[in-house]
Write a structure and sequence with these properties.
Length: 644
């Protein structure tokens, strides 16, 4: 029947979605059962086998489609499930028999993708991502959420008897802070609650994997959230929208008891409290990350973070403890990373002041392109393992590989599991360091130690400088922020995109410089050799007839009428010397009649190409009333020739 409904053969198999331990000898198993969800309870028998106790439909406990996300938690003898109901998966819900969230109400759940769930302090928490209803007037966006319900919630009176009376949700903020923060909005996975010492304070954290949207740049980040901060947000104001066209504004309703709080008898709650929580389940404040910034960020077109597991509070030779993060990717690899500053700093509002990411190694577990769907840490005193899950395969790998050969190499790993044994002269993870710490060399913060013979990284062998430890920390932290390294001696590899960008930049730069140099060279040559320049480049090279006539008559005040100039080579008649020098410039020459100079370079300008020039100037007679009369415009009988 499943295939007749248009489903593939793979989708029509039975996928186990719930495997809960009800007691020491009883388990509950629920599966998709070829798009007909079914649950069975089993008991561990005396013959080391499981006996079926009961069977019931799995509606609202297990999704129909195996591709739909779901999560569950068994807490205080009750099963809490976040999944989707119906064949089409159009009815998301958080369910504990007989209670559920509001049906088809986007203010409660709006197309969610559930990630994980866990109990804490009398509540059950759910992590998921959904379409942000508060952003719907500005477009469509996906936000990460944390929601909770009270374990003592028994529903309300009358029409609220099958509804949660304590359902609240808030936004998780994993972003790089700044004037314009860069958000990683989509949560993909999370760890269990980790208890540890951070900056001298005992805290409880949850590490989560966040990514950018699928149609954005390929970005992934790891953020940690403190449970105290989550609870504080749920005690804050609500985000309220009066009508569909109004803005979302904070509001603290003057209602007692406060909506969303646990009650000893939820069925006796007043109706105004239940109506408020039915329409306003979203909190106004967001949950900020513990260190106010991501622990690790990676941008890549090939892979994204998909899963996470934490081996908490690994103690080093110095007595400090670190959370070791194992991060699965969509490309079949697992990253091993830590925050080297976590023992020194706690909750901070200053970006980057308390986060020093160190990627210890990146291990290939599955074939390229196979996503790591889940990671589990199997702690063991001598043989600790990491269990990696893919869609069709399960593998185990060691938590540490202390294979460095020298003291400096071992310390540069910055691996909390590995330290150098001075007595045995090898890099080891022996637990004996807890009883004899002085024989083990380890420095997670800086990655070097003066007791190592090979000294500080980048310095000659046998040299070390304790006075420059702070400076070395800054240098190594810059290297640690590059999450592409797989060890202390990794060689940077440049991608094809980087190479193509470098080639294009070089070509464009060469063209620009060539154009500028050619332009400057051409202009300089034109100025150095005017002979190759166009005569029309200089506006003063033109001979204005009126100006030229004025220059000629300036030296012959008594001469009027027509003057004709003929330029030639050599001396003209009457012992006239040439007016122009070898460069065609009018010089200081005198006429044969003994008059003064007839021209000057400043008055005449520059004659072009030393070509003969004939000018006829009509000068009106002095005292003539009509300078344009035909009699006055007749040429004079005497013509004065000037040879140029």
């Amino acid at each position: 029947m499943c295939k007749y409904k248009g489903k593939s053969e793979d989708a029509c198999q039975n996928y186990i979605k719930v495997l809960a331990k009800l007691s020491d000898d009883r388990i509950l198993v629920c599966g998709t059962n070829a798009f007909k969800p079914k649950c069975r309870s089993y008991q561990y028998g005396p013959m080391h086998n499981f006996l079926k106790l009961s069977e019931k439909p799995g509606e609202a406990i297990c999704p129909y489609d195996p591709s739909y996300s779901s999560t569950y938690t068994f807490y205080e003898k009750n099963l809490y499930v976040a999944t989707v109901a119906g064949f089409t998966g159009a009815d998301p819900l958080i369910y504990r028999e007989p209670l559920r969230t509001e049906q088809f109400n986007p203010k409660h759940l709006n197309a969610p993708n559930f990630v994980s769930s866990f109990p804490y302090n009398g509540h059950v928490y759910f992590l998921f991502r959904e379409t942000a209803v508060e952003y719907i007037n500005c477009g469509k966006a996906i936000y990460s959420r944390v929601a909770r319900v009270c374990a003592r919630d028994n529903g309300g009176p009358h029409k609220f008897r099958a509804r949660w009376t304590t359902f609240l949700k808030a936004r998780l903020n994993c972003s790089i802070p700044g004037d314009f923060p860069f958000y990683f909005n989509e949560i993909q996975a999370s760890s269990e609650i980790v208890k540890g010492l951070y900056g001298g304070q005992n805290e409880q954290l949850i590490y989560s994997v966040f990514t950018t949207p699928g149609n954005s740049i390929g970005g992934s980040a790891i953020c940690a959230f403190r449970m105290a901060d989550i609870d504080a947000v749920f005690r804050g104001p609500f985000k309220v929208q009066k009508d569909i066209d109004s803005n979302w504004l904070p509001e603290s309703p003057p209602i007692s008891p406060r909506p969303g709080e646990c009650s000893n008898d939820s069925k006796s709650l007043p109706e105004n409290t239940l109506k408020f929580i039915q329409e306003h389940s979203l909190m106004d404040h967001t949950v900020q990350s513990f260190w106010n910034s991501p622990i690790l960020v990676r941008t890549s077109f090939q892979s994204r973070f998909t899963s996470i597991a934490v081996d908490p509070q690994i103690e080093t030779a110095s007595g400090k403890t670190y959370d070791v993060l194992f991060i699965g990717t969509s490309n079949g690899t697992v990253l091993k990373a830590i925050n080297a500053a976590s023992p020194l700093t706690g909750h901070s509002n200053d970006y980057g002041s308390s986060v020093v990411p160190v990627v210890i190694e990146e291990i290939t577990v599955f074939p390229r392109g196979t996503p790591v769907t889940q990671l589990l840490v199997h702690p063991s005193y001598y043989n600790a393992k990491l269990v990696a899950f893919a869609s069709h395969e399960i593998k185990t790998i060691r938590l540490y590989r202390c294979q460095a050969k020298t003291c400096g190499e071992c310390v540069r790993l910055q691996d909390p599991y590995c330290s150098f044994d001075l007595q045995q002269q090898k890099c080891t993870s022996s637990r004996s360091r807890y009883w004899n710490r002085e024989n083990f060399v380890q420095n997670i913060e800086m990655g070097w130690d003066p007791r190592c013979p090979d000294g500080r990284p980048g310095m000659p062998s046998g040299t070390s400088d304790e006075n420059n430890m702070d400076e070395n920390r800054m240098d190594t932290s810059d290297e640690q922020e590059s999450d592409m390294t797989t060890g202390p001696s990794a060689v940077p590899v440049y991608s094809s995109e980087t190479f193509a960008l470098a080639v294009v930049t070089s070509v464009v730069t060469s063209l620009v410089f060539g154009f500028i140099i050619g332009y400057i060279f051409s202009r300089r040559c034109r100025k150095d050799d005017p002979g190759i320049c166009s005569p029309y480049d200089d506006p003063h090279s033109y001979l204005d007839p009126h100006n030229f006539a004025g220059a000629l008559t300036a030296g012959h005040h008594g001469t009027t009428g027509l003057t004709r100039l003929t330029a030639g080579h050599g001396h003209g008649p009457g012992g006239m010397a040439p007016l122009y020098g070898t460069h065609g410039t009018l010089g200081h020459h005198y006429s044969s009649a003994g008059h003064g100079p007839i021209g000057h370079p400043a008055d005449m300008g520059t004659l072009v190409n030393s070509k003969p020039i004939n000018l006829v100037l009509n000068v009106p007679k002095g005292g003539s009333k009509n300078a344009n009369s035909s009699a006055d415009n007749k040429p004079m009988q005497k013509v004065k020739k000037i040879y140029l």
